[in-house]
Amino acid sequence: MNGYIDAHMHVVSSGSFIDNPKEPPIPDGPEDVIAAMDAHGIEIGVIVPIRPQDNRFILQCQRRYSQRFMGCAMVHPYNKNSVLQLRKLIEKGLHGLKLHPITQQFSDRDFEHLSPLIKEAGKLGVHVQIHCTPMFGYSTLEGVLRLAYEHPETNIILLHAALHRYLDLFPLSRAFHSGYLSNLYVDMSGTITAFYNSPLWESFRWVMKQIGPKHLVFGSDFPAADIGKTIKGIHALGFSPKEENLIMRQNMIKILKRKL
Ligand SMILES: [Zn+2]
After folding, report:
1. pLDDT tens digits, residue range 111-134?
2. I want to staple 62 with a disulfide (CB 3.0 to 4.6 A). Which of 71, 104, 149, 213 is the partner?
3. Average pLDDT over residues 57-64
4. How many domains does the chain have?
5. How much distance in Å is there from the Cα of 212 to the middle of ligand 1?
6. Distance 247 CA to ligand 1 centre (A)
7. Residue 34 parent element (H or E)
8. How far from the centroid of its chain's Cα atoms is residue 47's Cα?
9. 155 CA to centre of ligand 1 in angstroms
């Protein structure tokens, strides 16, 4: 199987995911996620925790389906032992660190607490995913950009393409051309589905084209967003098949250092 690599998926231990309390929960056990992956040609799903207490369950899922899942760890930057916790979780076999400024309630500009973690991830050779939907003063986008700039040895994925602030990613194209931020990647999950077929689509598409295929990754945020619609949106960005292969697979192989 030479399929897609989805950089951003969730599996929950309860087996059902509640996104909107007004709607029925979505089946989200490991087998449900694998069925969704199979239905969309996804070979490997990077499983991202929602809460730090999910680490153990994600390790179990990864052990059970080692050919299909690669898990990330979550720790809280305010925890005195966060660097040590991260090191232990990576030693146990996880492949990255996920940070969520909004649900974990810390600012992505709290460099004092975040820098040691980002630095450690680089030393351990794993990537960091940072949720980025600027709101509530926790998620600012500028924090993620500065962390990436100050830690060039750590690969960082900015999640959700900064939602309504995607336009502020435009200067990245210039930074990449000048050799800066080569460690920064953009996942479009949730945002590409929100803007596809909207009056903003041409603008969103144009900014993603400026960022370019070497710095974009396919992430669906399943089950919070629709995999099929995400893939459809990526096809509609208008990249060549070779460029699309970078977004859908090759960039993540490089980030995960996965031998396939
Ligand atoms: Zn997510």
Report:
1. 999 999 999 999 999 999 999 999
2. 71
3. 97
4. 1
5. 23
6. 18
7. helix 30-39
8. 9
9. 18
